[in-house]
Amino acid sequence: MNNNPLSFVQPTADSPWGTYISQVDRVVPYLGHLAKWAETLKRPKRALIVDVPIELDNGEVAHFEGYRVQHNLSRGPGKGGVRYHPEVTLEEVMALSAWMTVKCAAVNLPYGGAKGGIRVDPKKLSHKELERMTRRYTSEIGIIIGPQRDIPAPDVNTNGQIMAWMMDTYSMNTGTTATGVVTGKPIHLGGSLGRVKATGRGVFVTGREAARRLNMKLDGARVAVQGFGNVGSSAAELFAQAGAKIVAAQDHTGTIYNPSGFDMADITAHVKATGGVGGFKGAEAMDGEAFWDVACDILIPAALEGQITAERAQRIKARLVLEGANGPTLPTADDILAERGVLVVPDVICNAGGVTVSYFEWVQDFSSFFWSEDEINLRLDKIMAGALKHIWDTADKHRITLRTATFAVACERILIAREERGLYP
Ligand code: GLU
Hints:
Blueprint: H1 16-27, E1 46-55, E2 61-72, E3 78-85, H2 90-106, E4 113-119, H3 127-141, E5 150-154, H4 160-174, H5 198-213, E6 222-226, H6 230-241, E7 245-251, E8 254-257, H7 264-274, E9 284-285, E10 298-301, H8 310-315, E11 320-322, H9 331-339, E12 343-345, H10 347-350, H11 353-367, H12 373-398, H13 402-421
Helix pairs in contact: 1-2, 1-13, 2-13, 3-4, 5-6, 5-11, 5-12, 11-12, 12-13
Bound molecules: glutamic acid.
């Protein structure tokens, strides 16, 4: 019998779920007998939509739509962040949860994939309203999360404070002190050293390894970064420390360019003080679309999905694209970049540093024994470089892109687990 199509999502070629499905379709020919189970990857195991009502500071009641999707739990509990954004949809969270499944398997962490989100502009809420919304959301998804079931973490517009409220709410509801229910927590609540900068560090490590294979020197390399939040700024800092010049940056506040490279201390202070790169004195302001034409060697999309379209892919000057964001490149753009000889280190390995240190945090919480920052950074480097090497060998063997190779490595692990566990009943 043919598989019934999902009724609750109508993906298009360019939508996040549509992008993910096309990435799965591309890997199926490399899965051998496991292809029998590939449909599993195209269906989230569980998707929860919740109403999140809160009392605003002025006494009115506001309702927000929240989600938690557990895409696949074959290899372990669900893992993945929670995103607060006014345009979050169920479809987007589904795709993000699926990319978490692939990402965790690509670096061989004992996790499945999950993701959550609330359709809200958190900048419009007061601190207290943000806390009430986070607590109510946590309570609503509390029926499916837990240290052994599904472990949320920070993502776009969420941070350690929000994780602390989530940990506290879950703990209060269960009568425990459940530090392992979320990762990305503040250090005093069982957080891990190195977690805040871990995603950016992973982008740097995979970028360093890819540059080495391309014979590209990091010293003097020109880097353009889209998104100067946690991921983009941490990656930029490490590239600058390795001698690279950060020549362009873009975020929701503006686009800036300086061919001699930004002074990292100045830009960091500017972003901290103003909330974005716009208006930075050490660079000239540029039209947003011109960002994609900037002369650079390395491009780091570290913002949202769907940024590298087919049209932009024709104009990109970089030789190396490091996907700090989840899903920044559309499938049509992927083909164009490959044809043009631009190497893309895909999100599902490039930005896996965050979830890798989340895993370290979870392990430390369980053992109540905490590691030094050096130890964490060293282990992260080893895992990321090792995973990328394995993926690179797979890409060479089948003559496929790094994205399809990452999917091949990851999907094989996921589907072997699927097959070994067997269908219940
Ligand atoms: N939100 C991050 C990601 O997209 C980290 C998830 C986690 O640590 O669980 O990979």
